[in-house]
Design a protein that fits this description.
Two copies of one chain form a homodimer. Chain A contains seven helices and seven strands; from the N terminus they run H-H-E-E-H-E-H-E-H-E-H-E-H-E. Chain A is of the alpha/beta class and about 180 residues long. Chain A has a domain of about 90 residues: Dna Topoisomerase Vi A Subunit, Chain: A, domain 2 (3-Layer(aba) Sandwich).
C-alpha cells in the first residue's frame, strides 16, 4: 500500500488484531461495501458509485472540453485547481507495453466513441509530465486529431511560486521553449 | 550567509581561529582579491571580472534575444538548461518598494539604453514565478513594449517529470490556462 512500509504494516496489523478487533471488523465491512458500491463511470471511467460519476452526471459542466488524465487522483487535482469546468476521461494508467498496458487497457476505444458523439471540441492532454505520460499523450492526440478536434497539452514550466535558481534544467528548458507572448 | 545558521557559523569560526589559521589568512586574501576583481558587467550587470562579462563579450550569442533575470544565479540556471543562446540582462533583484528597490535600482534605464540600440528583437521575461517576480516582469514588459519589441514570458506549469497528483493547485491552474496547441 502507498506510504505504508513493512514496519508500519506490521504495527497496523498488530493494533487491529490485538486491541482494536471491533475496528478491524468495521474496516473489513467498510472495504466490502466500498468494493460492492464503487465501480467505474460508464462514460469517463472515473471511480463512481452509480452508472455515471458525479462529474459526468452534472449539467453544469462544459461538454466542449475533455480533459484526459491518467488516474482518479488526477481528476481531483485538476478539480482542486479550480481552473477547469469541462468533462474528463480517465485512462486508468499510462502506456506501458512491458506491463501489458496498451490502447485497449487505457480505454482508447471508449474514448473514441465519446469523441464520435461530436460534442467535444477540444481535447486537453493532462497526463503526467513523465516519459510514459508524454507517450500516452501522443497516442491520445493522434486519436483526437483523426477526428479533426483541437488538441492542447497542459503547460510545462516553472511551478507557481518557483525560483529559477532552484528549478532543474529540464524544466527550465521546457519553460523557455514554451514561452508565451505577453499581452 | 545562506545555508549557515548560528551553530555552523560558530563551528566555522572556531575551526578557522583555532586549527586553521593559515586557511583563515588565505580565505581573507581570496575574498579581498575577489572583491577587487569582480565587479558588474557594464552591459548586462552580471558579475564580471573585466568590463564585460563572458556572455556579453562572446561573439557566439544571438543578439536578437534578451533574457531578463533577477540574479546572476538565474543566468547560470538558464545557461545550464542548455536551451538558450541569446544575451542576458540581470536586474540584480526584483521590485520591492518597501525595501526601496524601484526601477532605478533594477537598472531599467540601462536596460532601456540597451534596447534602444535596436539589435534586440525579443525580450524574454525570466523573472521568478513569485508575486514580486511577476510584478517585475510586468514593468519590464511595459518598457519593452514602448520600444515595439516582442515580449515573451517563460512558461509556468507542471515541472519536468512531475505528476499531477503531487502538483499544487496554483501550478495546475497555470498549466491549464497556459495549455498549448499540439502539433
Amino acid at each position: 500500500m502507498p506510504g505504508i512500509g513493512p514496519k508500519s504494516a506490521q504495527r497496523l496489523a498488530f493494533r487491529l488484531l490485538q486491541d482494536e478487533r471491533g475496528a478491524a471488523q468495521e474496516l473489513s465491512e467498510a472495504v466490502t461495501v466500498a468494493l460492492e458500491r464503487v465501480g467505474r463511470c460508464g462514460r469517463c471511467r472515473m471511480l463512481a458509485e452509480g452508472e455515471l460519476c458525479e462529474l459526468c452526471a452534472s449539467q453544469a459542466r462544459d461538454d466542449s472540453q475533455l480533459c484526459v488524465v491518467e488516474s482518479p487522483a488526477d481528476v481531483l487535482a485538476v478539480e482542486n485547481s479550480g481552473a477547469y469546468r469541462g468533462r474528463y476521461f480517465v485512462l486508468m494508467g499510462h502506456l506501458s507495453p512491458l506491463d501489458g498496458i496498451g490502447p485497449a487497457e487505457l480505454g482508447l476505444h471508449e474514448l473514441d466513441l465519446l469523441l464520435a458523439e461530436g460534442r467535444v471540441r477540444e481535447v486537453i492532454l493532462a497526463t503526467n509530465s513523465t516519459v510514459e505520460g508524454e507517450a500516452t499523450a501522443h497516442v491520445v492526440s493522434e486519436l483526437a486529431r483523426t477526428r479533426g478536434l483541437s488538441v492542447t497539452r497542459i503547460a510545462q514550466g516553472v511551478p507557481f511560486g518557483g525560483e529559477l535558481e532552484y528549478v532543474d534544467g529540464g524544466t527550465l528548458a521546457h519553460a523557455l521553449t514554451g514561452r508565451q507572448q505577453v499581452g
